[in-house]
Amino acid sequence: MALLALIAVLIIAQTGCSKGASSAEPVVGEEYKLDTICTVSVYEMKDSEGNPTSASEMQEEAQAVIDDAFKLCDELEHKLSRTIASSDIAKINEAGGEWTSVSNETMELIQKGIEYSELSNGAFDITVGGITELWDFHAAEGEENLPDADDLAKAAEHVDYRKIEIDGDRIRLTGSESKIDLGGIAKGYIGDKMTELLESAGVTSAIINLGGNVICIGGKTDEEDFVIGVEAPFSDRTEIVGKVNSRDKTLVTSGIYERKMEIDGKIYHHILNSETGWPVETDLDAVTLIADKGRSADIDALSTICLIKGAEEGKVLIEETDGIEAVFIKSDGNIETSSGTEFEASK
Hints:
Number of strands: 18
Number of helices: 8
Largest sheet: 9 strands, antiparallel
């Protein structure tokens, strides 16, 4: 269940009815997966004749497709999780440099992970597994311990995405002590695949909420967008800093406050420096990225890269990337956005 601990910030879906909106309630499924509470809310789907129909009038069909989406989530986690012994990733990590055959999904995601590792010059690096396994951000309060500094330094020496080799459907690590961890990108990928499943089943209006990853299929109605509230950092999920209207969009937030521990008065968060193994120094508490649906994996990785690089470099990166907008929540409380972001700050 530690697969996706690197990105664990909540975006709150504001889906209450407003004037002019349909009064029909969605069919909602909620399960604990990917180390967080996940929900799938279906508002509308096509009936047997292809006509858009309220999900509340198709309860059985809507529930069946929600169940299928969660089943797919489980199947993908069991391929992509570093901590599940039977997964493709665990097999690669334990192969001692030997070739390992993997699923199409694992291959696709590793290739995308390499792409973003290259883009960030290794600041985001999917061979960070040797470092992440030394940190336990799930320890009970009062039982937290820091990793040994020498162990972290040694693990950091083996972080290098260029040690991943691909041959057809096989992958190997040329560094026998390197380890892959897809935690910074896998949740977005899983969300993209769940979206494809829902749409192939005729869903035309829905929200997938995987904690810090939200995907909107369509809008709430033909006339009304979904409204997604962005949580205020360190608010214990009680406040939002603003909201974004969303139709056929995905939003991903990366923040330093959801996975953390305090030892001797100092906060240690889960966004880790691939060169040192220690939490990164950043002037951001959180960053939310917004893109068209189908790009949740991309902005999952990019949100982490922005958080690592900080507000100034992160903003430059987003401005240079087509189709992606950003909300940067700085540690001093100020909020900055990219030039095309339609973000309404809370008053």
